[in-house]
Amino acid sequence: MTPIKDVKVLVVDDNALILDLLMKGLSPHCEVLAAADGADALLKIVDDPPDLILCDYRMPGLDGRQLYEKLRARQQTRQIPFIFLGSRTDVEEKLRPIVEGVEEFVIKPFFLKDLVRRTKKVIDRLHLEKMQNRAVRPGVIQGRLEEMSILDLMQSLEMGQKSCRLTIRHSDETCELFFSAGQCADARLGSFEGEAAVFQVVRWPAGDFEIDFNSAPARTTISRTTTGLLMEALRLMDEGQRDGTPEGVEAAES
User: Fold this and answer.
1) Where are the domains of the chain?
2) Number of H helices, E strands in the chain
3) pLDDT tens digit string along 225-246?
4) Of the candidates 142, 139, 128, 143, the residue with the CA atom closest to the CA atom of residue 164
5) Containing H/E element for 165?
6) Is this structure's pTM higher than 0.90?
């Protein structure tokens, strides 16, 4: 999948080993920059504000929370979202009370794969917002599944609590998914409707998509949350692969 390079992430950590690991883990998904401590980060942010800050809490001199507060005090940087890394005690006692602008609290120690997955959800949402701002037609954005997969699109719409119509085209098939406040309420794909349509379309590896934020669902055919819907779709796909059934999702639905 093509990396999303129009989202700039600044990683801040005074541990050089962790900083290097985070840089390598995130580089396939975004433009990633490094800062060795809070003071270094502050200088770089003021000079060239990133789209997202991934920041350790405990650092010498200017710690993560102090950096957050200094940026919140400046009009030019107050909207930059944060992901904080910290011990369980630090997160619960020092960081959890912070709500505005914080996307995630990641407990140390963590698995790099899990942190990258959680960070990528935010990156995908920010990418979607940039696409929306650049849209030629008001409220309508277009792209390719090679840039953002169906799973990434649906997760981003849920995180952003968006209401819209997501149209996906693959070969000669077209699927329409309708979202209300981030929840997939309805889906249509030929003779498939509701969850069955979603379970079919998530398997499409390529195609075009269009998101129309001027549209909203006219009916409700799906009761699961978007997250629950995607988890069930992945379970059915995994089950089909284990059974050696090429059409695992269809077999599970029949």
Assistant:
1) 8-129, 137-253
2) 9, 11
3) 999 999 999 999 888 777 665 4
4) 139
5) strand 164-170
6) no
